[in-house]
Amino acid sequence: NAGVMQNPRHLVRRRGQEARLRCSPVKGHSHVYWYRQLPEEGLKFMVYLQKENIIDESGMPKERFSAEFPKEGPSILRIQQVVRGDSAAYFCASSSRQINEQFFGPGTRLTVL
Amino acid sequence: DAKTTQPPSMDCAEGRAANLPCNHSTISGNEYVYWYRQIHSQGPQYIIHGLKNNETNEMASLIITEDRKSSTLILPHATLRDTAVYYCIVRVATQDSGGSNYKLTFGKGTLLTVNP
């Protein structure tokens, strides 16, 4: 059952370090979405990517955050110079088409010390 | 996307049917009703979706009222592992290059607790 895979599952960083979160979509899915869930809150959309293209990054903070989905390999969410407020669970989802249901990965829990 | 209203919490006895309501009175004609759930510390799990007809799969049934202003997710025989937060989401599910139908808007959902 090759669902959405995310790694690492847990990531601890000190303030100012970089965090790289990886997401491998369901095999054959070319649409990837990243969501963030702050403690005690619902999931919030961050970015939508389709192979090599960023379709919508309206939910991403303007600074320090970037995302990519290269032709080969997993999608990467990169957070530079992390701050304590970046501590959250980051979920990746994928779909076979934009309008189809999204399947989520187990998430990466980022803790910034 | 239209907003949804769900009760914050519900209890259900193990083995009984769990009926989770959702109000979406401003739903548009091209918006589907989706249900996801999130078991503690896990990623959201897709359950089911529908437009206007009732739907059933191996996990649950979805009953949508004729006027489409509300729906009910039914777990026919709830188990302890069904304890989770259940999210009702309405979403345009047509290919529309000008819209953002891909964004899932998660509200607070309903915390369903299945008791032994």
- Decide which structural class fits the backbone of chain A: mainly beta
Quaternary arrangement of the chains shown? heterodimer
Number of helices of chain B: 0
- Alpha carbon gyration radius of chain B: 14 Å
Instruction: Tell me the number of strands of chain A.
Output: 11
* Tally of DSSP β-strands of chain B: 9
Q: Average pLDDT of chain A, to the nearest integer?
A: 93
Q: Judging from the principal axes of the Cα atoms, what is the shape of chain B?
A: globular
Helices and strands of chain B: which structural class?
mainly beta
- What ranges of chain A have pLDDT less than 50 throughout 5 or more consecutive residues? none
Strand content of chain A: over 45%
Characterize the main sheet of chain A: 7 strands, mixed
Radius of gyration of chain A: 13 Å
Helicity of chain B, as a percent range: under 10%
Structure description:
The complex is a heterodimer of chains A (113) and B (116). Helices cover 0% and strands 50% of the residues of chain A. Chain A has no helices and 11 strands. Chain A has strands at 5-7, 10-13, 19-24, 31-37, 43-50, 53-56, 65-68, 75-79, 88-95, 103-104, 108-112. In chain A, strands 2, 4, 5, 6, 9, 10 and 11 form a 7-stranded mixed β-sheet that branches. Chain A has a 4-stranded antiparallel β-sheet with strand order 1-3-8-7, with no helix packed on it. Chain B is mainly β and 116 residues long. Chain B is built from no helices and 9 strands. The model of chain B has no long low-confidence stretch (mean pLDDT 91). At the A-B interface, β4, β5, β9 and β10 of A face β4 of B.
